[in-house]
Design goal:
- It is built from nine helices and four strands, in the order H-H-E-H-H-E-H-H-H-E-H-E-H.
- The chain is an alpha+beta fold.
- The protein has one domain: NADH Oxidase, CATH 3.40.109.10.
- Strands 1-2-4-3 form a four-stranded antiparallel beta sheet, with helices on both faces.
- The protein is globular.
C-alpha cells in the first residue's frame, strides 16, 4: 500500500529550503486533492488561501510566533472557515448539486431544509467549532497529497488567528483563519527528518469490538 509508505516518509517539517519552489503542476494537484476533501453535508464551508508572496509571508510570520516555516516554505496554505450562518451557503450548494447531477432544486428542497434545520439547532459556539473542524478534514487531504508527491508540509496551529484575519482582510469577507500549513521541500540540515516516528502501538490505539 503506497499510502502507508508515503505516510511513513512524511513528518512535520521544521526547516524548509527557501530556494526550492513547488512547480505549478504540483500546486494544481494539491488544490485538486483539497477540493476532493470530505465535508459535512458536502458543504465545504471554507476557503483556502495559497500564499506565495514573500512580503506577505514576512508579515504573517510576525503573527506566527516568528516561525521560519512561514517564510522559508514555498507556499503557505491558510484554511479559513466561514463565520456567517447565512442560508445562502446551503442554497448555493443545493443549486450546484442540481446543476452537476442533473436534477432540480425542487427535488432537493427537502434535503436543503434538513441541512438548514440541523445547522440552525447549533448554538453560535457550537457552529463556530463545527465550522473550524471542517477545515481540518481538508488539511488532512493536503498532507496526504503532499506525502504522495514527496512535498514536505507542516500543519500548524501556532499562529494568531485574529492577526491573520486582520492582515489578510478575512473578517470583512466572513472568514476566519482556522489552521495553516506551509508546504515546500525540507532543508538538508533539518534534523527533525532523522527522528524515528513515534506513534501509539496498535494494541493501545485500536479496540476491535
Amino acid at each position: 500500500m503506497k499510502l502507508i509508505e508515503n505516510l511513513e516518509w512524511r513528518y512535520a517539517t521544521k526547516k524548509f529550503d527557501p530556494l526550492v519552489k513547488i512547480g505549478t503542476s504540483d500546486i494544481e494537484k494539491l488544490k485538486k486533492a483539497v477540493q476532493l476533501s470530505v465535508s459535512s453535508y458536502g458543504l465545504q464551508l471554507y476557503k483556502v488561501l495559497i500564499i506565495e508572496d514573500q512580503e506577505l509571508k514576512q508579515e504573517l510570520r510576525k503573527a506566527s510566533w516568528d516561525q521560519s516555516q512561514i517564510t522559508d516554505a514555498s507556499h503557505l496554505f491558510v484554511f479559513c472557515n466561514y463565520t456567517d450562518r447565512d442560508d445562502r451557503h446551503i442554497d448555493n450548494y443545493i443549486q450546484s448539486v442540481a446543476d452537476i447531477q442533473g436534477t432540480t432544486v425542487e427535488a432537493l428542497s427537502g434535503y436543503g431544509t434538513f441541512i438548514k434545520q440541523s445547522l440552525a439547532a447549533k448554538t453560535n459556539t457550537e457552529w463556530n467549532h463545527w465550522a473550524e473542524r471542517q477545515t481540518y478534514l481538508a488539511l488532512s487531504n493536503l498532507l496526504a497529497a503532499c506525502a504522495e508527491l514527496q512535498i514536505d508540509a507542516c500543519p500548524m496551529e501556532g499562529f494568531e488567528s485574529e492577526r491573520y484575519n486582520e492582515i489578510l482582510g478575512l473578517s470583512s469577507k466572513g472568514l476566519n483563519a482556522a489552521v495553516i500549513a506551509p508546504v515546500g521541500y525540507r532543508a538538508t540540515d533539518d534534523h527533525t527528518q532523522f527522528r524515528k516516528k513515534v506513534r501509539k502501538p496498535h494494541e493501545e490505539l485500536f479496540e476491535m469490538i
